[in-house]
């Protein structure tokens, strides 16, 4: 997404020209995502060795970490496009930001869920109020806030702009939250649990994680492109080109 | 009469559905408040476990209270409340409809999500069950009492805080026995007595609160 | 028959009107006149039973209205300054719910014809909040088209915000209600051109001598 | 890596519930998103088709 | 410009004074929420002392948040906000005036009453001082961030809960360092670092939040 | 001089008007006409700079208004559907604050004379919430009496809720503003009787051919 948007900002910043481009690119990203995820899964179950300390439970890492990465990365991308939309008043950027949010929230949820399932066997509890966990939870709230705000406003232009202001405020806040939570937790908590006890990674593990991360990334692009196309159709319905487009498909 | 109740209920649920977010929002507010406490208090598990029943119940109470602002005030402002008073149906019935929809939108979701939050505080399984049951009996009481407060503060400016002031003291018994039931289970002393009392409150509130709200509404319209 | 006996209304320190008596029969229109702030809205709210007068009483078919509030409510339609529309519901849904709560059947066919009568059928599916001021008024008034059987209509400045076409339509509707034996009470600063066999007039400026002097 | 048989694979060294719980939920969630996207697109197109048909009818009258 | 700020401030304080109750109400809400906790959690002194900073700060946060509904919404509804946008003064200045008056009415009273409540939880004297100082630095940040949220949700229905959803996550750092400073003092580790950070947040919020709020207000009027 | 160039306004799916151009000079009154829902209010809000048009632009003294929003705002008074009164403040305080925020001196003597002009001086000390609909409108309009020097007045249905006396007073005020070189833009469904050397008229019903067909 970010690539095609930046690549030829001027031409493709109009929804009309972006719509077919997105349609053309979307299957490729989807296919790439499928291939990468399949490869990643193969590595994670059949190539990567059993972990000495954690046994097989560590295999959760292959989705947990990529999902966690994506959840944070997508928020940044969302903030970026929101900002572009707000400053340059380009409709497409706002649509992209809107389309990114659900996927981002989804990966946040996955990171939380898999983390919780991983925590039970390794830490003996589903949840601790640790720095990373807490900031990930707050990230989920930020995503939900963004989506709830946009959903609550009927006027599209207004929803875009309001969402953009919120996303930008949130982007400033994320590092602040991250560091405050980290500091807070290390201040109070003894040496109970820390991520550092995670195993030093074998090369195959790292490879598997990276491939899965790439797969999730491609998936996010594909999903976002698909959603952007819906959003474009919904919002541009009174233009002639959408009328022609849908007329053609019918 | 039942028909009128049905229409009020239908109307309010439709409105809630239109605003989509609303139901989810009350829920998310609950979740967020509960999550704030560990941030304020610190992450030690045992301390959090002790606090859990109190925190969850106080949060439920606040979530319910916050949503009271939406119970009558919007209808008052746009004149639809006036029309309800003139509907030719007993006002009590209409009030019941509104309270019921309020509970469905702000109480019930809390009951459903509470176990998940209890897990975050590391509550044992039986305490989780009692938590749910106590909320199931307790939140309708909150809605009922809250309706009286909301009706009394109608049209009074700054009513957001005033309503809190009026209803929170009345919520206290519910809070004590609600949180108490969970605490008792966690401590192994059994929660029946607490829950029975909560049930008693519910019966009492069901009988009295709608009349009081209806009377308060009539006064507010003068 | 609606009968007012020596009504008095006091607001704050001011006596708005006092000793106001009149009676209204089927087929009659009562226009409440008076300058801004003379108490027209207050009188109308008293007539609905929403506010009780500081003295005097109102009788419906010979019985005081306080005694049987619900019964009386079923016999009247009140449209006030406020349009009583929920911003988030569509025009159609608003009308439907208003009708249902008033005890009318609420099928959407009838509703649509009501909206159509006031030229807002094409807005039926729009949420009320996006409607213009005049369109909102029209939707509120569409209730009248659905409730010809309710005898007493009480309307507070029904013509405000309406354009010329809608004013004519409303006048026609009032005339036909009166012709079929209904009663109408209204306030307006514009001239009314309703064909009715009797137009009564209460001028509050005359009933508030005390005020004028102050 | 050789798991020997399905039982071993499913057991995941005793951590089956957690590992499969994670992977399954991830899969479900992603599939749900895909389904949601497909139905949304279909819904949009259907809605728009109706919308244009209505508009055309309006234009004709 | 300063004159305009003065008039906005004067107007809002006058309004608050007219409604009398309002200032007291925010305060009483704070007091009630804080007092509910011992009821929900149980009366053990040591546990209460540990909870105290967190509970006090969370309550302050909720009190501030509740009063956000009154920040712009009434002005929006009666059309005075529109007039402010057309006043010919920079909107940022007017927003500053409103935020300042909001803080004077809902933040400052909390700062003043907090020590008393801290005493109830048996906090030591130095912790009480730090509590006051941290609230004094922290509550303006809450008002500032809150203004952004309030402006964003303006005219959006069900905004009462939505605003909570938007601002509470943003309040988290303030909460952590606010409560942290008190906790650290009680634990004897010194609160300077926390307070400095809070000061940093205040500076940042002062610079950014009014602009964001003004932008959000303009958006809301479209 | 205020100049509109090919303005267009779209709301939801509906194009309310398009290709709307006009210019307004000192001493001229522009009456925006149109049926309910034709977009009068939307046009007025665009002219105030509260909403941006979906196409076209507005120029004030030759410069686009978007460029210098605050400067432009100082040159106009807008009175909308809403009266912009705080319910809890008295009429006098309301007027004072409105004047002060508009950059006028706000001594209570001047304010009282403004209220007096619209016959609500006796309500000066009453909180706005107890005023009648028409009295509230009068208080809002009293701002006009205080700001003769501000050239551009934009008024959305200023006559609504006013009784006959107040209508005449307002017409007189508008006439004197125009005579001293001011500009007035207004919408109304009633007939205007303002003496002015030029009354322009924009009829939105004519600018929305596309809409009428739909
Ligand atoms: C609900 C619980 C959990 C959440 C929300 C969570 C969240 C996160 C996040 C946000 C990251 C990315 C951070 C970064 O790269 O800087 C991450 C990475 C990671 N998590 Fe978790 N986690 C959870 C539970 C766990 C558990 C139980 C374990 C293992 C015992 C674990 C092990 C890891 C590892 C090894 C990484 C990669 C670290 C790195 O690349 O630096 N997580 N987690
Ligand atoms: N989201 C939307 N979808 C469709 N139509 C909309 C939407 N939002 C606004 N409208 C229409 O835009 C118009 C707004 O009109 P506006 O308020 O400017 O009318 P007006 O000329 O002032 O009317 P009135 O005389 O009744 O005050 C209305 O016809 C309304 O139905
Ligand atoms: N507390 C009070 N103290 C003094 N006067 C009050 C008080 N409350 C209301 N009033 C007066 O009562 C009157 C209420 O009038 P009402 O709203 O019935 O007028 P109306 O005839 O409908 O006027 P309009 O034509 O403007 O709608 C107003 O003159 C108002 O000033
Ligand atoms: Mg009136
Ligand atoms: Mg209008």
Overall morphology of chain D: rod-shaped
How many β-strands of chain C, per DSSP? 9
| CATH homology superfamily of the largest domain in chain C | P-loop containing nucleotide triphosphate hydrolases
Q: Based on helices, strands and strand pairing, what is the structural class of chain D?
A: mainly alpha
Assembly type: heterohexamer
What number of domains of chain D?
Answer: 1
Kindly state the number of beta strands of chain D: 0
CATH architectural grouping of the largest domain in chain C? 3-Layer(aba) Sandwich
The average pLDDT value of chain C, as a whole number, equals 88
Described by strand count, sense and barrel closure, the largest sheet of chain D is:
none
Element order of chain D: H for helix, E for strand:
HH
Give descriptors for this structure.
heterohexamer; B: 222 residues; mainly alpha; elongated; D: 61 residues; 2 helices; 84% helix; rod-shaped; binds protoporphyrin IX containing FE; binds adenosine-5'-triphosphate; binds magnesium ion
Account of the 3D structure:
The complex is a heterohexamer, with one copy of chain A (250 residues), two copies of chain B (222 residues), two copies of chain C (214 residues) and one copy of chain D (61 residues). Chain B has 222 residues and is an all-alpha fold. Chain B has one domain. Chain B is built from nine helices and no strands. In chain B, helix 3 runs antiparallel to helix 8. Chain B is elongated. The two termini of chain B are 25 Å apart. Chain C has 214 residues and is an alpha/beta fold. In chain C, helix 3 packs across helix 4, helix 3 packs parallel to helix 5 and helix 4 crosses helix 5. The C terminus of chain C is likely disordered. Chain D is an all-alpha fold and 61 residues long. Chain D starts with 5 loop residues before the first helix and ends with a helix. At the A-B interface, helix 6 and helix 7 of A face helix 2 of B. The complex binds protoporphyrin IX containing FE (HEM), adenosine-5'-triphosphate (ATP) (2 copies) and magnesium ion (2 copies).
């Amino acid at each position: 997404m970010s690539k095609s948007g930046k690549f030829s900002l001027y031409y493709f910043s109009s929804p009309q020209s972006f719509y077919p481009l997105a349609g053309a690119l979307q299957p490729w990203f989807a296919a790439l995502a499928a291939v990468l995820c399949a490869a990643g899964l193969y590595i994670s179950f059949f190539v990567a060795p059993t972990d000495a300390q954690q046994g097989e439970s560590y295999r959760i890492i292959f989705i947990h970490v990529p999902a966690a990465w994506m959840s944070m990365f997508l928020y940044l991308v969302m903030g970026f496009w929101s900002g572009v939309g707000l400053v340059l008043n380009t409709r497409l950027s706002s649509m992209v930001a809107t389309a990114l949010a659900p996927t981002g929230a989804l990966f946040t949820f996955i990171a939380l869920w898999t983390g919780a399932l991983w925590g039970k066997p390794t830490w003996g509890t589903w949840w601790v109020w640790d720095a990373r966990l807490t900031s990930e939870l707050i990230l989920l709230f930020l995503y939900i806030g963004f989506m709830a705000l946009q959903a609550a406003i009927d006027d599209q232009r207004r929803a875009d702009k309001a969402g953009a202001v919120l996303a930008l405020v949130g982007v400033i806040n994320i590092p602040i939250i991250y560091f405050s939570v980290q500091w807070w937790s290390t201040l109070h908590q003894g040496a109970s649990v820390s991520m550092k006890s995670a195993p030093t990674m074998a090369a195959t593990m790292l490879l598997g994680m990276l491939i899965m991360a790439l797969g999730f990334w491609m998936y996010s692009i594909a999903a976002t492109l698909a959603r952007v196309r819906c959003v474009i159709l919904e919002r541009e319905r009174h233009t002639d080109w959408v009328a022609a487009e849908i007329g053609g498909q019918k | 009469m039942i028909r009128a109740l049905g229409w009020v209920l239908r109307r309010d649920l439709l409105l809630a559905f239109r605003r989509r977010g609303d139901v989810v929002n009350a829920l998310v507010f609950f979740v967020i408040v509960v999550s704030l406490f560990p941030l304020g208090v610190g992450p030690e598990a045992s301390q959090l476990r002790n606090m859990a029943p109190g925190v969850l119940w106080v949060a439920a109470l606040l979530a319910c209270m916050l949503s009271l602002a939406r119970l009558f005030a919007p209808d008052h402002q746009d004149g639809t409340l006036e029309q309800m008073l003139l509907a030719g149906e007993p006002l009590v019935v209409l009030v019941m409809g509104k309270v019921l929809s309020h509970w469905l939108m702000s109480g019930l979701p809390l009951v459903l999500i509470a176990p998940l939050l209890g897990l975050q505080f590391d509550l044992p399984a039986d305490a989780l069950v009692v938590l749910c049951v106590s909320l199931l009996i307790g939140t309708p009481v909150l809605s009922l009492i809250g309706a009286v407060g909301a009706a009394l503060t109608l049209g009074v400016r700054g009513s957001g805080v005033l309503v809190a002031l009026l209803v929170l003291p009345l919520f206290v018994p519910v809070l004590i026995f609600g949180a108490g039931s969970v605490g008792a289970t966690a401590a192994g002393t059994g929660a029946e007595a607490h829950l029975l009392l909560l049930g008693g409150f519910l019966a009492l509130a069901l009988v009295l609160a709608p009349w009081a709200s209806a009377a308060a509404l009539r006064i507010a319209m003068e | 028959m609606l009968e007012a006996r020596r009504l008095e209304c006091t607001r704050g320190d001011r006596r708005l009107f006092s000793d106001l008596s009149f009676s209204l029969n089927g087929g009659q229109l009562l226009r409440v006149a008076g300058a801004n702030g003379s108490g027209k809205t207050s009188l109308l709210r008293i007539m609905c039973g929403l506010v009780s007068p500081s003295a005097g009483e109102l009788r419906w078919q010979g019985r005081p209205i306080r005694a049987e509030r619900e019964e009386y409510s079923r016999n009247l339609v009140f449209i006030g300054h406020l349009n009583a529309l929920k911003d988030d519901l569509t025009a159609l849904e608003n009308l439907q719910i208003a009708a249902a709560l008033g005890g009318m059947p609420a099928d959407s066919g009838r509703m649509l014809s009501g909206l159509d009568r006031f030229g807002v059928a094409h807005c039926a599916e729009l949420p009320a909040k996006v409607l213009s001021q005049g369109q909102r008024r029209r939707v509120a008034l569409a209730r009248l088209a659905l409730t010809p059987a309710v005898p007493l209509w009480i309307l507070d400045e029904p013509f405000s915000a309406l354009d010329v076409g809608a004013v004519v339509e409303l006048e026609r509707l009032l005339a036909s209600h009166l012709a079929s034996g209904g009663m109408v009470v209204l306030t307006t600063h514009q001239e009314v051109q309703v064909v009715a066999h009797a137009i009564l007039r209460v001028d509050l400026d005359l009933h508030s001598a005390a005020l004028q002097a102050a | 890596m050789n798991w020997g048989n399905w039982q071993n694979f499913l057991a995941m060294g005793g951590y089956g519930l957690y590992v499969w719980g994670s992977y399954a939920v991830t899969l479900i969630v992603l599939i749900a998103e895909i389904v949601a996207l497909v139905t949304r697109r279909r819904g949009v197109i259907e809605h728009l088709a109706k919308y244009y048909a209505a508009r055309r009818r309006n234009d004709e009258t």
